[in-house]
Amino acid sequence: MTLIDDERTAHRHDEGAAAFQALATAAAGWGALRAAVELGLPDLLPDAPTSVPDLAALAGAAPTRLAQLVAVLADVGVLALDERAHVRHTPLSRALRSTDGLPLTRLLTAGWADEAWRGLAEGVRADVSPLELVHGRPLFALLAADPAAAEVFHEAVATGPGDPFDEAIRSALDLTGAARVADVGGGRGRLLAALLREHPGLSGVLFDLPEAVRDAVPELRDDDRVEIRAGDLFADRVGAADVYVLRTVLHVLDDAQAVRALANVRADAPAHARVVVVEALSDDEAHRTYAAHSSLRLFVLCGGRERSTAEFAELFDRAGLELRSVTPTGTPYHLLEGAPRLSPRTDG
């Protein structure tokens, strides 16, 4: 080996060490964030800058150890330290509050969800959701048995205030000529409520599991244009509509389940109906990082994944639908629009 070879090897090792250090730093930041949530720091920290000892007293924590934690939280932007080393809020710490924070942060930092990552290696080996391996049952069985976890989950996946993609998705959704829209797997119905506000001539159906629709937004419960239907997408019928919207529903399902869900919608769809699936695409180069990270989180929590355009076309076809268009929204999400296939499927 020459001196040049030695230098190249040393350079590669230096690059590897730097990359590893960056990941280790990120891991420490995530661990610090989880600890901050468990200690209740986003809720306990007053609006005015507060000394570490005073915050420690509020949290029931050791001041010296809390100072170590706060130093990392400030480094990653969860909290901030002023010139007097007093702790103050950041936009992220406010988003982590249990009352008025962003629901998705409460899901991703929930103990039962975070613990699922311990099963990732075995899940990759066995092709089983890590959450199921760690907790002994799949996600929706866990939610059915744990109302507190179900509350966190359904609030996190609901659209509405705080959802950075909601307006762009609604703007891209073409409801021309539609009189009735079905929000399939719509949770608490915030998407449907927004669509009905924007299109007063519409009527709508909110369809989801009983534990999701029982907390439907009051705006829908008080609207005589709306039918709230509790049911199982694999077994119960959605009913007739002009447009069916499935927003981030299929990515929590495996391929066979996704086909069953689409076929169930297809069974009630009139010939003129449109089925609009809203999902991130794994082959969208502009949002590749988002899709990759989202896909891994889905696998950890429920065995799901993000799919490519071609994979969605195959799912549509197997369910008796024809994928006719893919509309970008300027966000990681696309609108994949299909229609009932009128001619029989021909294989080969």
TrEMBL record:
Source superkingdom: Bacteria
UniProt GO MF annotations: O-methyltransferase activity; protein dimerization activity
Domain O-methyltransferase C-terminal, residue spans: 117-321
Spans through the membrane: none
Residues spanning the signal sequence: none
Keyword terms, alphabetized: Methyltransferase, S-adenosyl-L-methionine, Transferase
SUPFAM superfamilies in alphabetical order: S-adenosyl-L-methionine-dependent methyltransferases, Winged helix' DNA-binding domain
A single GO BP: methylation
Ranges for domain O-methyltransferase dimerisation: 32-96
Active site: residue positions: 251
Protein's name in the database: O-methyltransferase family 2
Upper taxonomic lineage: Bacteria, Bacillati, Actinomycetota, Actinomycetes, Pseudonocardiales
